[in-house]
Specification:
Helix content: 25-40%
Number of helices: 4
Distance between the termini: 69 Å
Largest sheet: 6 strands, antiparallel
Radius of gyration: 28 Å
């Protein structure tokens, strides 16, 4: 009985800890070695015509059951997210723009004050989803594009929320109180940011 128990334990250790070679892939020469608790990937993958990613990496359970292509996609996604975060933090760290709310509305001298048709339309894009509406808030969003001076230079901070109107398209960053379009950039007052936020909340709640 003791011999059988020792043999069982030995086999279990072999299965859990000793990796089995899985051959060489045709991606440039990547090799994998898999055990029940981990996987070793000796990357040698052709990234493009001039570059090969060559590195040995260790993946523990449950990643050891993932295919090489899936592990590669996870790696690239993590690297892209890390680079994006670093670029964003770097841009904001060196941003010379004062993103405090404007004390007064930054309108052009001859701001549009004409009448508006009730079927004026606007579209808000939130997390890739579009919300198109008329009347309720759409006039405010159209007028904001027409009336704003966009007098500042565009900074490196994130755009924010995209807004499409009949008069023109722009983005707003309500945390940093700025509006941005192909005309340039400008600051929003607290009242403007609050009004835009309320419009967005109303339309996206439907």
């Amino acid at each position: 009985m003791k011999k059988k128990t020792k043999l069982f334990i030995l086999i279990l250790i072999i299965l859990l800890l000793i990796p089995v070679p899985n051959g060489t892939l045709k991606d440039g020469g990547t090799k994998t070695f898999t055990a029940l608790t981990y996987k070793i990937v000796s990357w040698n993958r052709l990234v493009d015509a001039e570059n090969i990613y060559s590195k040995t990496e260790f993946y523990i359970f449950p990643l050891n059951f993932f295919g090489v292509d899936r592990l590669w996609n996870i790696k690239n996604r993590a690297v892209a997210e890390a680079n994006s975060t670093q670029e964003s933090e770097t841009a904001e760290a060196v941003c010379p723009v004062d993103h405090s709310p404007a004390k007064e509305e930054q309108n052009v001298p001859d701001a549009y004050e004409g009448g508006w048709c009730g079927n004026t339309q606007a579209t808000i894009v939130v997390k890739g989803k579009e919300y198109t509406f008329m009347m309720d808030g759409s006039i405010t969003l159209n007028a904001l594009y027409l009336n704003h001076s966009f007098k500042d230079k565009i900074c490196e901070c994130d755009d924010g929320i995209q807004i499409k109107t009949e008069k023109g398209n722009y983005t707003v960053n309500l945390e940093k109180y700025f509006i941005r379009s192909d005309k340039g950039q400008g600051q929003l007052t607290e009242e403007q940011a609050k009004e835009i936020k309320e419009i967005i909340e109303r339309q996206t709640a439907n």
